[in-house]
C-alpha cells in the first residue's frame, strides 16, 4: 500500500489524465484517493502545490520506466531508441502519464508557475537524451564520418516528436505501431 502522499499523487495523476487540469478540484482528488481534503492541504498546502508535486510525480514515474532501457544494453544508440520507445507503450501507467503530461502542458499555456516547472522537467529530459546522443555519436564516428548533428538540438526535436506522437496515439489518430515506426525513423535521421 503506498503512503498517503503517493496515494494522493496517483489519484491526481489519474484525474488529470482523464479530465484535465482546469476543472480539477481538491475535493475530487480527495474522493479519488479515499482521503480527506484536510490531508491533501496538510501535505500539499494548496491546489497549486498539489499540481506541482503531481508533475514531479509523473516525471519520476516516467524516469522509472524509461531507465529500464539503460539496463537493457550497453550501446548508447540502443539505449536512446529503447528509452524513447518506452515513452510510447500500451500500459496503464504510461498511458496515464502521457495523458496527464499533455494536460499539464496544455494548462501551462495559461499558468506561468506550471510553465516554469514543465520547462525545467523538459530541459532535464532533453539533457539526458543529449548525453546519450553524444555517446552514440562517439561510437558512430567510424560508421558515419562527418555527421555533425548537435546533440541538444536532436534531443529537443526527438522529445517534441515523442510528445506529438503520444498525443496522436492516445487520441487514436495514429497506431502505436506507426508511432514506433516514425520514432525509429526520426532517431535514425537525427543520430
Q: What topology does this entry show?
A:
Elements: H1 4-19, H2 26-33, H3 37-44, H4 47-66, H5 68-72, H6 76-85, H7 92-108, H8 112-140, H9 151-171, H10 176-190
Could you characterize the architecture of this molecule?
- The structure is a single chain.
- This protein has 10 helices and no strands.
- Helix 8 crosses helix 9.
- The protein is elongated and about 60 Å long.
- The N and C termini lie far apart (42 Å).
- The model has no long low-confidence stretch (mean pLDDT 91).
Helix and strand succession?
HHHHHHHHHH
Shape: elongated
Q: Roughly what is the average pLDDT, rounded to an integer? A: 91
Q: Could you tell me the strand content as a percent range?
A: under 5%
Task: Note poorly predicted spans.
Answer: none
**How is the biggest beta sheet arranged?**
none
> What is the C-alpha radius of gyration, as a whole number of Å?
18 Å
Question: Total helix count?
Answer: 10
Helix-strand category: mainly alpha
How many strand elements? 0
Distance N terminus to C terminus? 42 Å
**Amount of helix:** over 70%
